[in-house]
Design brief:
Elements (H helix, E strand, L loop, with lengths): L6 E10 L2 E5 L5 E5 L12 E8 L5 E4 L10 E9 L3 E4 L7 E4 L12 E8 L5 E4 L18 E9 L3 E6 L3 E6 L12 E9 L5 E4 L3 H18 L3 E2 L7 H8 L3 H13 L3 E4 L2 E4 L1
Parallel strand pairs: 13-15
Antiparallel strand pairs: 1-2, 1-4, 2-3, 4-5, 6-7, 6-9, 7-8, 9-10, 11-12, 11-14, 12-13, 14-15, 16-18, 17-18
Organism: Catenovulum maritimum
Protein name: GntR family transcriptional regulator
InterPro entries: CvfB_fam (IPR014464), CvfB_S1_st (IPR039566), CvfB_WH (IPR040764), NA-bd_OB-fold (IPR012340), WH-like_DNA-bd_sf (IPR036388)
Length: 274
């Protein structure tokens, strides 16, 4: 059954001066306004569209890039407020309300907050800042090395909290993150470990993919610096991280692999490209 707040591949059933009409099955025919319709769209073609209620409460289709679907978490900016609640920018012509009773505290215009999207009793897209109740508390169905989608949350003493596949919480440890992460950012990641207490450790890259990336980074550095890099066993972790955006342990593993494949020589004062 189709609902508002989600994207579907829908068939064009007719085309008129207002736009193209899509078969939304149980929801009937829905208009995709002309300004958003694909050029040269023909009856019978399939179009990916997101369904929502416009400012006149009419079910409408859009091809605009939407930041989240119903049933998902997102970090959205508050753009206005009223007596009924605040409104966040979802990427639609119409902003989405967070009702007063769905706010944990007063929410400020211009700030981003973690929210969860759901349909209210009238089937309209609504957001809530009370997100904990929508996290899956059941045993996580993941295996170590599984690829997952991550939503980066707040930074903590350990690293970064993240939501996994819009369902579970996990942690990216600070000493294993070698790039700038921002609140609300979506990233690809991997399951590193599922602890006995059910908590999940994450990593942004895994196994051979990580080693290959680090090896390529070292080779690129060597090529740009006359084939030599002055880093060795006594180099500090900070120096290596600044030059290559990786830990000292990862650096040592990567140069070990490059040495075995005879791409570099390891000298007392650094490494040299062969």
């Amino acid at each position: 059954m189709l609902t508002a707040g989600k994207s579907y591949q829908l068939k064009i059933v007719k085309n008129d001066e207002t736009g193209i009409w899509l078969d939304a099955q149980n929801l009937g025919e829905v208009l995709l306004p002309k300004k958003l319709a694909p050029k040269q769209a023909q009856e019978g073609d399939l179009v990916w569209a997101y369904l929502y209620h416009d400012s006149k409460e009419r079910l409408t289709a859009t091809t605009q890039k939407v930041k989240a679907q119903v049933g998902e978490f997102a970090c959205l900016k508050v753009v206005s407020a009223s007596a009924y609640g605040v409104f966040v920018d979802l990427g639609l012509d119409k902003d989405v309300i967070i009702p007063q009773n769905q706010q944990k505290r007063d929410m400020e215009i211009g700030r981003k907050y973690l929210v969860y999207l759901y349909l209210d009793e009238d089937g309209r897209i609504t957001a809530t800042a009370k997100t904990n109740e929508y996290l899956d508390q059941t045993e996580a169905p993941y295996e170590v090395k599984d690829a997952v989608n991550l939503l980066v949350l707040n930074e903590s003493d350990l690293g970064y909290n993240a939501i996994i596949n819009h369902a579970h919480r996990g942690v990216l440890y600070r000493n294993e993150v070698f790039e700038r992460l921002e609140f609300g950012q979506f990233k690809k990641g991997f399951i590193k470990r599922i602890r006995p207490d059910g908590k999940i450790d994450l990593i942004l890259q895994a196994g051979k993919e990580t080693r290959d990336k680090y090896s390529a980074s070292i080779l690129k550095y060597l090529e740009k610096n006359d084939g030599f890099a002055p880093f060795h066993d006594k180099s500090s972790p900070e120096e290596i991280n600044k030059a290559f955006a990786m830990s000292k342990a990862a650096f040592k593993k990567a140069i070990g692999g490059l040495y075995k494949t005879k791409k570099i020589k390891i000298e007392s004062d650094g490494i040299r490209l062969i």
